[in-house]
Design brief:
There is one protein chain. The chain is an alpha/beta fold. It has ten helices and nine strands. The termini are close together.
Length: 228
Amino acid sequence: MTFIEDIILKEDAIFIADSHFKQGDNALIESFQRIPKGVQVFLMGDIFHLLIGALQSSRLENQELISIICHLSWNNSIIFLEGNHDFSLQSIWQNRLDSTNANLCNKTTLNRQKMSEYQSCLDSLSLDYNPSNIRIYSHSVQPIILRNWQNCFCILAHGDLWINPFYNQYRKILSSDALIYIFKLLDKLSYGIIYRNISCKIAQRTLAKFSFYRSDFVEFMFERIAQY
């Protein structure tokens, strides 16, 4: 739980959640491009179908929408809450690409062409954004609590908090530094092949559709609120 005093939720703020961006999702790209300048934007998690910010292959796969969010940051304030499909986002919007791939390239003489092609793609990931206009809130610090334009408290989270103890533990392990380090190592050693295979399998899963008109919506709503 995080109290935020230097952000006021504005009346015309835009909220986007669970858009699950995949390559080729032109409709979502166009929606982001139509966001008016100066509007406060809350990205409420799972904006990407799979984005592990610490993995360069994952950034490469999602480069189109990442670049648009970067472009938005020059004219819009963006508050990004991590979901369970997009995490380790601090690696994208606070740190530049590291140099370990160049070191790896110097140490190996195998498959130089593949490494050269992979490195060329990574070099294209240089980001231009306004860091003062992008706030990232990891899953572990949610919900965030802030005031709105009417001085009322608002509690914001991705929505999968406190579902059950097993899920909470799973989420902690998934975003742990140790596991992220292993993911990064495997990503570099495999030139992104392992990540792409995992991403492909996740992309094939059918997402459960949510409707406000479902027969048990009221029960679902009160049950979820009670967990908070």
